[in-house]
Specification:
Rossmann fold; 11 helices; four-stranded parallel β-sheet
């Protein structure tokens, strides 16, 4: 399905790749696979940063396929504390497992690690870089709630500078000709390199410092937290923390069908009163991590069994762009 079966950045994913994974996820939700489908297969979990949803959904996914997970455990109890390199760590764990999931605080870590392993490696977040499997479940949530992916108007608000989920999602939405509105303070705008790549890819993007300037146009509002751990300067964080926040009153000014998403965890950027509105889809979004990651592992393990190749799963009967009939 993918070059060498690694999933490192959203740039690796063609539109056909994305649709194949999403169609398989939809099929899995309709008709869960047999528990023994990948019996005996092991997934290595290598998390050098904290995680709840990504780690647990990957573990749930491999177990739903009949396999099991090998967890490296906390970094402070691993050989990394003895000075072992990341390359050596993934080499060793790849010898125990049929696929690896890696989260690491350093941007580019997954790309480097993939050069040292012969099993599929999935990037579960590399610093402020990319988080492609989050993007797949984000797209699945949009497709299920916004009637499809083609030609959507999407607003992405919050930390656009350090937000790896934002960078991955922006690249992927470009493949579906989405109109993307980026809302953030000046200090947290998209990195210049990301803007350049999006323009080169033909993306339709606009940048704003005020959500109200675009709220009534949006079909999807994707909110992100201001990530304190990504700031090199604590004072910079304090200046923008809490500045971009929505509540139920905010959503009264939005379109009735506008979908609110968030990769979670949230802090105070979405008030709890939004949870009870029909706009809120972020807990459904988190749930979607299981069928989407189940689908991705199913495809990658199948591909590994067959020695790779370019064959992909036939698209579901949702139409050319994934829109529901």
């Amino acid at each position: 399905m993918l070059d060498r079966n690694h999933v490192i950045t959203a740039k690796d994913l063609s539109r056909a790749d994305i649709e194949t994974v999403l169609d398989r996820a939809a099929a899995i939700e309709r008709d869960p696979p047999e528990r023994e489908r990948h019996a005996g297969r092991l997934l290595g979990l290598c998390f050098f940063e904290p995680s709840t949803r990504t780690r647990m959904s990957f573990e749930a996914a491999i177990k739903r396929l009949g396999g099991d997970a090998l967890d490296m455990g906390p970094v402070d109890s691993s050989s990394a504390t003895k000075g072992e390199s990341l390359a050596d760590t993934v080499r060793v764990i790849a010898g125990y497992a049929d696929a690896l999931v890696l989260r690491h605080p350093s941007e580019g870590a997954a790309t480097m690690a993939s050069e040292f392993v012969d099993v599929p490696l999935l990037n579960a977040g590399d610093g402020a870089g990319q988080h492609p499997t989050q993007t797949l479940l984000d797209l699945y949530t949009m497709r299920e709630n916004a009637g499809g992916l083609s030609d959507l108007t999407v607003g992405i608000m919050g930390d656009l500078k350090y937000g790896r989920t934002v960078h991955s999602l922006a690249y992927a939405l470009t493949k579906f000709d989405a109109r993307q509105h980026f809302v953030s303070p000046e200090s947290l705008r998209l990195p210049r390199s990301v803007r350049y790549d999006l323009h080169e890819a033909g993306a339709r993007i606009r940048e704003h410092d005020d959500l109200d300037a675009v709220l009534d146009e949006l079909e999807v509002l994707y909110v992100t937290r201001i990530q304190r751990e990504r700031f090199p300067d604590e004072n910079e964080y304090r200046q923008v923390a809490g500045e971009y926040r929505i509540d139920a009153a905010t959503m009264e000014r939005a379109r009735e069908e506008c979908v609110v998403m968030h990769p979670l965890p949230r802090v105070d950027e979405i008030a709890p009163d939004v949870d009870a509105t029909p706009h809120a889809k972020y807990f459904e979004q988190a749930h979607n991590g299981v069928p989407v990651r189940t689908a991705l592992l199913d495809l990658l393990l199948d591909d590994a069994d067959s020695g790779g190749g370019e064959e992909t799963v036939d698209a579901a009967d949702d139409g050319e762009d994934g829109r529901k009939p």
